């Protein structure tokens, strides 16, 4: 139980925290004042008190409005869920109504998962005018840190690295699929290893030098001929519309690109590992009704994916 008599705690006027949350959400003193139906002077005065309370600048001025400091981002991660729980206790509304809510949900995932999941998320939220979904580029090594700093609400990645402050839930298993343009490379399917090694490859890699395929081939004493590389799966798929080459990428994205761009998707002619895609979030939002709804939305999008994408 918290110590409600603690002198430092008693300084934390709940109204100040409401102003803080509005400033974080609106990114502008003027817009926060309008949203709270307060004067701009009253919000500026509250910001001054917040700065003294937390001994931090909290927000710095920019041409577009105000930018939160690192300390403000860390505070927001704890304050906003707490305010949601307090609001529910005071008003008796302990649920999130997406039909009437005005909320921006920020997801962190790489573009292969965005291709597979975002269209389904947008379709599910199409009839909810106050719901907005934003996506930031993230991978298994960055999602936890982005969650810790309040940059995203939910991360989606393959085997995301995480710590004791995070929770995860497995979404689906995936693997690897080979893509090529049948009009430029009229190859029979399923591919045989000789064809796979004879024709040029487009590499998708962070460092532009090698990928998992190269590791697997090297273990067999084999190599492939790479003619170009890119860091994004969608970019690689787009290049295949004019490039007579092969690309090996996650199955959940490969089927989307194949259907959209008229490419052929087939299994690679060598054993490739399977992996699990998971959702990850911070423990501080585990019981937040809005976040619970978001997790259900993502789960529903995953369940609607064709089996061929998983």
Main pleated-sheet profile: 5 strands, mixed
Query: Roughly what percent helix?
Result: 40-55%
CATH architecture group name of the largest domain: 3-Layer(aba) Sandwich
Look at the structure and name the CATH superfamily of the largest domain.
Periplasmic binding protein-like II
**Overall SS class:** alpha/beta
What is the overall pLDDT average? 89
The CATH C-level class name of the largest domain: Alpha Beta
Residues in β-strands, percent: 15-25%
- Report how far apart the termini are: 45 Å
What's the Cα radius of gyration? 24 Å
Helix/strand order:
HHHHEEHEHEHEEEHEHEHEHEEH
Q: What is the number of helical segments per DSSP (H or I, 4+ residues)?
A: 12
General form: elongated
Number of domains: 3
Provide the spatial order of strands within the biggest beta sheet.
Answer: 4-3-5-12-6
- Strands, total number: 12
Low-confidence residue ranges: none
According to CATH, the fold-level topology of the largest domain is: D-Maltodextrin-Binding Protein, domain 2
State the gist of this model:
This protein is an alpha/beta fold.
In words, what does this structure look like?
Helices cover 42% and strands 20% of the residues. The protein is an alpha/beta fold and 310 residues long. The strands form 4 sheets. The chain has a 5-stranded mixed beta sheet. It has a 3-stranded antiparallel beta sheet with strand order 10-7-11, covered by helices on one side. Strand 8, helix 9 (212-219) and strand 9 (226-230) form a beta-alpha-beta unit. The longest helix is centred in the N-terminal third of the chain and has 22 residues, at 70-91. The chain starts with 6 loop residues before the first helix and ends in a 7-residue tail after the last helix.
């Amino acid at each position: 139980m918290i110590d409600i008599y603690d002198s430092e705690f008693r300084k934390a006027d709940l109204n100040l925290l409401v102003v803080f949350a509005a400033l974080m959400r609106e990114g502008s003193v003027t817009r926060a004042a309008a949203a709270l139906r307060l004067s701009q002077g009253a919000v500026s005065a509250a910001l001054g008190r917040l700065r003294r309370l937390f001994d931090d600048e909290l927000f710095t001025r920019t041409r577009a409005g105000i930018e939160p400091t690192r300390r403000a981002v860390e505070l927001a991660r704890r304050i906003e869920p707490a305010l949601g729980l307090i609001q529910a206790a005071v008003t008796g509304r302990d649920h999130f109504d997406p039909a009437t809510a005005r909320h921006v949900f920020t997801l962190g995932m790489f573009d292969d998962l965005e291709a597979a999941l975002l269209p389904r998320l947008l379709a599910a939220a199409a009839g909810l005018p106050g719901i907005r979904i934003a996506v930031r580029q993230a991978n298994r090594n960055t999602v936890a840190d982005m969650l810790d700093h309040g940059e995203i609400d939910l991360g989606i990645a393959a085997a995301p690295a995480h710590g004791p402050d995070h929770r995860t839930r497995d979404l689906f298993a995936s693997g690897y699929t080979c893509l090529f343009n049948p009009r430029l490379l009229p190859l029979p399917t399923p591919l045989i290893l000789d064809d796979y090694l004879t024709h040029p490859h487009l590499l998708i890699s962070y460092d532009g030098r090698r990928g998992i395929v190269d590791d697997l081939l090297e273990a067999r004493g084999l190599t492939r001929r790479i003619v170009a590389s890119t860091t994004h799966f969608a970019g690689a798929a787009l290049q295949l519309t004019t490039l007579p080459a092969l690309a090996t990428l996650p199955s959940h994205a490969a089927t989307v690109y194949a259907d959209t761009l008229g490419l052929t998707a087939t299994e690679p002619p060598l054993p490739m590992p399977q992996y699990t895609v998971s959702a990850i979030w911070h423990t501080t939002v585990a019981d937040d009704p809005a976040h619970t709804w978001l997790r259900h939305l993502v789960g529903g999008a995953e369940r609607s994916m064709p089996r061929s994408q998983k």
